Fold these 4 entries.
Entry 1:
Amino acid sequence: MMMDADIVAVSPSSVRRVLRGAGLLARWNDKPGKKGTGFDHECRGGGVRQ
């Protein structure tokens, strides 16, 4: 970190470490993904040819 006359310069990795330590970089979407669960084909009608 470098400080000079009210100007501060820090590296991006330092900013990330500090914000992550304060809990401010938590993921906004905590739900697990649906990848690999497949597609449900329960609707079979209304213009769908079989």
Entry 2:
Amino acid sequence: MSDPWHLRGRARALALAAALPALAAALPASAQPADAISPARPGQPAQPAGAARPSPAARPTVVLPTALAPEDAERAAPLASALDALLSDTAQDLGLSVDLADRVASRARPDEAELVERARASDRLFIAPSLDLRGDDVELRLALAPGGARSLRVRVERVARDELAVRAAVMLRDLVAELDGGASAALPRGEEVPCSERCRGRLATPARSLGKATLAANATLYGGLVGFSIQRSSGSDDPRLLYPLLAVGAGIGLGGAIIIAEEWDVGVADAWYLGSGTWWPTIAGHLIYEGRFAEHAADPDQERWASGLIGGTAGITLAALGLSLGRMSEGGALMAQSGGGLGLTLGALVEWAARGDVDRTPIAGMGYGAALGWLAAAAAATQLDVTASQVLTIDVGALLGGLGAAALASPLVFESPTQGQQRAWVGAAAGGFLLGAGVTWYVTRAAFAGARGARPSWNRFGLPMMGVIGESVVGSRRAPALGLGWQGAIP
């Protein structure tokens, strides 16, 4: 999880930039030159500056605490506290007068009908944010209830956690700017809306195909490998043929990646998921051929490279089919990569156990394990909602469990071990590998989506919080008061 206290600093400049149009529109006529007039259009009289439409700035505003789902209350509490402070600061930067008197401690989702009724009964603007964790991303929902209005203005966006501060500031600015969006309809016929109004909401837009560089790098390297494999499988070692094939293969890979990134919105996780389908099946093809068929082939060097091409082509096809089911999360992409590596390790242990000889390199077992491990993990990644930290935690637990068990059972393979002793050592290592992964998953299972709903949270009595707890007023100037507090439900 990103550092929640870093959110305010990252979005401060953006919030100030977003506030400039609203602050400029909020200036009273007395703050402008008395003879300032708007530019006259042909056939129209000049309009005094004081006749400009009023701005919604400086209206009393209540920023409600960020609402959280019950299953996300523990994990997202620090993020929500930082978002509360960020939205309060952004609202003041936009010229709104934030009223902290009506803030409540509960993070339960407010009833929208009641929120509209509260807004209709007062002249204050209510801002109701909410957060939902979606794997590595966060779904941010901002609802605005203007005073006297009969409806809500809502904006929902799913963003990466590192981009939450920026997108929250932009979303709030856009919603505030839309409050008087109907004023443009009252302009005289033929009068153009000023750019300061037309261009609102275009300060920052999500970039398209963020994974273009990753996709291009993988495609270029694999294209070069394809050219080299074609040259080696043809039986030629002429460098006059090798270098053109390398250049052509890399160029086709790079060009294809650019075309794909322009045609589809390829994320970073999508690119790494596709890369896992490129490299692990290719490695598996080489290892399987070398371990099972090379000793029976007339020219194993040529056929090994062809086997790698077949594996890589099949892997890319399966990965593309997986991406056709939907966008891939960072946790899913890492799961696919991890599945190839962990499968390679388990495959080696299985072959050692079958042969009873740990001195022989288990090439075939590594190949089969890499292929099956990647395939299983890539398929699971399209169905599970996991984060990268969860996958890494389970990987570390599996490796530590396997290494620890292998170290404890190492006396079995001292001096001249029998086949039974070697199999026992391999079984201990494999058992520790699986036990480490299982224990790690059990300990962190509450972090998986939906796993907390069946049992009460350990922090049901509340947690300490740091944020806005009051307001300091000196004359006409207001400032939020930061401090420590305790937040939670009363049992």
Entry 3:
Amino acid sequence: MDIVHLADHKEVIPTLAQWFYQEWAYLYPDRTLLDVERLIGEKEPTQQKFPSR
């Protein structure tokens, strides 16, 4: 099993964002679906270090 960063597989981000938005949007009323997509796709500073193979 490979552990990868979502930011490196942007093709799945719209689906994940939609799932998140459908389930949890009521908790974040000021966030749009596009906001969720952007947040999922952001690279974290630690991404340069982990995961490793």
Entry 4:
Amino acid sequence: MTPNEFIAKWQASELKERSAAQEHFIDLCRLLGEPTPAEADPKGDHYCFERGAHKDSGGAGWADVWKRHCFAWEYKGKHADLDAAFDQLRQYALALENPPLLIVSDMRTLRIRTNWTNSVSKTLEFGLDDLADAAVRDKLKWAMSDPERLRPGETRQTLTERAAQTFAELAQSLRDQGHAPPDVAHFVNRLVFCMFAEDVGLLPGAMFTRMLEHARGQPEEFATLARDLSERCPPGAGSASRPWSGSTAGSSRTMRPSPWTKPRSRPLWKRPNSTGPTSIPRSWARCSSAASTRTSARNSEPTTRTGTRSCGSSIR
């Protein structure tokens, strides 16, 4: 099967997951020149469709495709939530011998997450049109038969050390501006808490990350943005000037109070001996480093979509 044939077929497909998953995978094997599960393993001992597994949370489940020492693969219907599919697949991982790659797809998007022990997890994401690129097809072929070529080079330890160093430099820059060490420590703790809160959904829609990205180009606004984060924002409260502050369209959930709301006698974003908020020191441009560290340190890792998104990593 040629790339154009594969792309055209699956762009036109309206089939549901149950009807299409195995055919999609077989077509992908044909496209990449890889044997299908039945061709490679007629007994289904190490490579098969519908591999049964026990969930960590209890109960039984099935991985749509499984290949020992290579991958576990979960299919969902068109436009499905691939993050939810990954969470489902992760519950099977140990029962599936902890494969190095966890792959989810809605037959129009393929998302690969690395799963090596003591390595930083990275995510690769490809759309149908990306399969016209030979380099993308190479990566998918490696996923099927040579996953070691997708192993990340960075370990959890080195990433943790790098994140700690970034926070240490940020804290020192604030102390150099005259802020009291307890205030600095409390503020850095707030940053870490907001990263956690975003990961678990207390700050929906990547709100904290988008706030930092907004402030990256206009660091003098960070003080105002941080105060805004302490308010309860109704759905759709974002604006063109603060696109990070709105909830997802149509959501009925309001933003919950954040740790910025703790009463303070002198907020960190006031200069010593000042009577009111002032522009943020230039050194606060380091918050862009915090944004990068937040991207590296989150579980649910940023993705790489060929031609549209940049590659990231996360601590698993």
